[in-house]
Each structure stands twice: as C-alpha cells, then as structure tokens.
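seq:
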Amino acid sequence: MRFDVVTIFQGMFDAYFDESIIKRAQKKKLITIKMHNLRKWAAGKHKKVDDKPYGGGPGMVFMVEPIYQALRTIVGRGLVPRHGGGRASTLRDRDTRVVLTSARGKQFTASDARRLSKYKRVVMICGRYEGVDERVFKYLVDEEFSVGPYILTGGELPAMVMIDAIARQVPGVLGKRESLEEVRGGSFPQYTRPEKFDKWRVPKVLLSGNHKEIQLWRSKHSK
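struct:
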C-alpha cells in the first residue's frame, strides 16, 4: 500500500515514520510513504501557498491552485475534478483515495482505517492555518477527516495518526494477526512480572494456564 502526503512541513514526519512498526513495514515493502512539499507547486519567487480569505477574517487560507497542481502530478490521469454541484467524487481510479485533514471533517474511526486499508493508495493533503479553499473540499478530494473534537495547528499530526491506524490493517504489518483482533475486541487489563509487587498481585486466573477461563476474564473486564 502507498501513502502520498502533501504538506509544507515534511520534517515533522521523519522521526515518527522512521521508528517502530511503521519503519519495519516500510523496510519489508508492505507500505510506501512518499512525502511531497506543497511549495513545489506554488508560483512566484516566495512559493506562496496561502492567502487572505475573501470576505475578510483572521488568518490565512490554503489556495486551491497549488493543491490542484500537486494532485495533477501525484495522481495523474486518475484526477477527475467534479464541475457540478454537490460533494466531490474525485477519482475514477477505484484503487486510490484522496483525503483532506481538517478540523471540521468527519471524525476518523477504526472503521475508516479498515475501509481505507483496502485501497492500494491513499493521498493525504495536510490542512493548515485557518483552513483550505472550499473548492479543494468540493471538487478535488474524496473525504475530509479530523481526529477528534478539538483544534490542532495543522493536519500533519492527524495524517500521522491516520497512516498509523490504516497501516496496522495491512496484512503482515503487525507481527501477529491476533494483536489486531484483540484491539478490535476492546482493551482489557494487562499484567507482567513480578507476580507480586508490594501488596499488589496479579489475578490468579491469569496464572492458571486455563485459556478458556482467561478469555472469559478478559471479556468480562474489557473496556
């Protein structure tokens, strides 16, 4: 599976994607993450990607043209902008999905992670500042996501969260498939050595070796 990330802050991703499960998944070629600097497609000497909003208001808004040009390059012939009204259905390529990270977007869930993992390619546009030109949302992207009911400085952290959640669904990325299944079923209390610390003991059932009883205990205590 391939992820393409369009951002003006590429350096924010380096440390996270070069560690742990995501690093191993890339090394095993189970996933590919390609970073794209949006300023590459900006015009003018200063490579400006944002401007003041029409109608007034604080802050700056990402312009539509650099994002359009970026997608034309990254997606190529797969990019078919909608020219009519209503919600965009950007791509005719069934293997690709274009996502915008935005504070006003639908809250990203485990169900979305599983669904997006079925695509061969996910392109993520990291929103920034006070927003993105509405024409990006209406005509160029397939979905708009947030990662919670709060405001972040930009879309880079949400993009990392989403890539991590989606990548975990790709077969082979996790060491054991049951690790994914247990997370889906809910979280339960976990214990490890020592069996006794101060006055705190590990529940006896977890030491019994009776897998059926252990599973029942875990189901009962799942959150």
